[in-house]
TrEMBL record:
Segments forming a coiled coil: none
Protein's name according to its UniProt entry: Metallopeptidase family protein
C-alpha cells in the first residue's frame, strides 16, 4: 500500500478546512488555543520510542480552568502530525477525512472530552 501524498501547503489547507467545520457556537468558545502542524511526534525519553500519534492536545481543558487560570497564560496547543497521517492513508480523500477526525478529536480534548467518550462517539 503506497502512502498518500499531499504537500505542506495542501495539508495546511486541509487542516484549516477541518477547523472551519467546527460549528460556530463551539469555535467561539475555544479559548487561548493554537493549532500547529508538525511532521511527526517525537516521544520523550520515558516514552516508547515507537509511539506514533496523529495529533496531540497539550494544555488545560476548558472544564478544568478556574480562577487560577489567568488571561496571560500561554495558549494550549493542538498538534496535527503530517507524516503519520500521510503514511496511513492511500488517497487524498482519506487524508482529508483523517485530518478532520484528528482535529475534532484534539479540539474535543480542549473542551474536556476524554478518549473513552470520544471512542463512544465515533471520534476515537
Amino acid at each position: 500500500m503506497d502512502p498518500a501524498w499531499m504537500d505542506e501547503d495542501e495539508f495546511e489547507d486541509a487542516v484549516d478546512a477541518a477547523l472551519a467545520q467546527i460549528p460556530d457556537g463551539l469555535a467561539r468558545r475555544m479559548d487561548n488555543v493554537v493549532v500547529f502542524i508538525e511532521d511527526r511526534y517525537e516521544p520523550g525519553p520515558h516514552e516508547d520510542p515507537d509511539t506514533v500519534l496523529l495529533g496531540l492536545y497539550e494544555g488545560t481543558p476548558l472544564t478544568e480552568r478556574d480562577s487560577w487560570y489567568a488571561a496571560g497564560s500561554l495558549p494550549d496547543r493542538i498538534m496535527v502530525y503530517r507524516e503519520p497521517i500521510l503514511q496511513m492513508c492511500t488517497s487524498r480523500d482519506e487524508v482529508v477525512e483523517e485530518i478532520l477526525v484528528t482535529v475534532v478529536h484534539e479540539v474535543a480534548h480542549h473542551f474536556g472530552i476524554d478518549d473513552d467518550r470520544l471512542h463512544e462517539l465515533g471520534w476515537g
